[in-house]
Amino acid sequence: MLAGGAARRLGGADKPGVRVGGRALLDRVLTACAGARTTVVVAGPRPTVRPVIWSREEPPGGGPLAALAAGLRHTTADRVVLLSADLPFLDHRTVRGLLAPLGHGATADGVLLTDADGRDQPLVAAYRTASLRRELAVLTGRHRDLAGLPLRRLTGSLDLTRIPGPVASFDCDTWDDIATARARIREHGHVLDEWISAVKDELGIDLDVDTGVLLDLARDAAHGVARPAAPLTTFLVGYAAAHAGGGPEAVAEAARKATALALRWADEDTPDATAPAPPAGTAPETRPDAG
């Protein structure tokens, strides 16, 4: 992952540390790569959401080719995912989608996303490590110093597969881009997933659960018991799941039990439809006058 740019269009701000949805851009990209065996970040060290290997290009600020060469020194994998650190909408599904076409029997050197205008995004891509090392060796033989050379000098010689990815390839080069990203994650169709991801990062939780089950539970607890019961019940479900060993199955089972209880609770607040009706013509029982 390359995170050492100068961010000139952001006025020299620390771009990897700019927050979108409460999380640093770098941490958002690291979360999308959580399944990687080794994660190398080419930049100056900083606190991150999970451990990484730090590397530095020579000279610092020498550009993407120099940074790529520095990062490759720390991996023995046969495939690598090359990413910039300013991709707010990258997710693990996209990362897996980049790697899949490079599986057994494939011949391409790499797979990259194209943006909304159809342009190649070589910093949202997966490559065969051998192909990168081969082309880096060629360029080093020609120029000795990779500093300042554009990445297309390398990628232009590769056999690449392209996948449209207008959202995942969206990068934040300007403050307007940052504002756009911050606005999008608050839209109705995205805000819940974004919030759950942020909370899991903040708490150090790596657990995928069916949020729909929890939302249904919260609804039933709020409507059938009382509104404050919703957050308290979902907390207790999480606590119970942890005691049961954790994992999606434990959460689902605890949620099922709590949902059934909430429904039974709500049923008691309605007339019992199974109770026998009084015989026709029977007058309701009355108490005799006390006087």
Written account of the structure:
Residues 188-269 form the DUF6457 domain. Keywords: Cytoplasm, GTP-binding, Magnesium, Metal-binding, Molybdenum cofactor biosynthesis, Nucleotide-binding, Transferase. This is DUF6457 domain-containing protein. InterPro entries: DUF6457, MobA-like_NTP_Trfase, Molybde_CF_guanTrfase, Nucleotide-diphossugar_trans. Pfam families: DUF6457, NTP_transf_3. It is a single chain. With 291 residues, the protein is an alpha/beta fold. It folds into 2 domains: 8-184, Spore Coat Polysaccharide Biosynthesis Protein SpsA, Chain A (Alpha-Beta Complex), CATH 3.90.550; 207-267. 40% of the residues lie in helices and 12% in strands. The protein is built from 10 helices and 8 strands. It has helices at residues 25-32, 64-72, 92-99, 129-143, 152-155, 175-184, 191-203, 211-224, 229-243, 248-267; strands at residues 19-20, 23-24, 40-42, 53-55, 79-83, 110-114, 120-128, 160-164. It has a 4-stranded mixed beta sheet with strand order 5-7-6-8. It has a two-stranded antiparallel sheet with strand order 1-2. A hairpin with a 2-residue loop joins strand 1 (19-20) and strand 2. Helix 9 packs across helix 10. The longest helix is centred in the C-terminal third of the chain and has 20 residues, at 248-267. Residues 280-291 have low confidence and may be disordered.
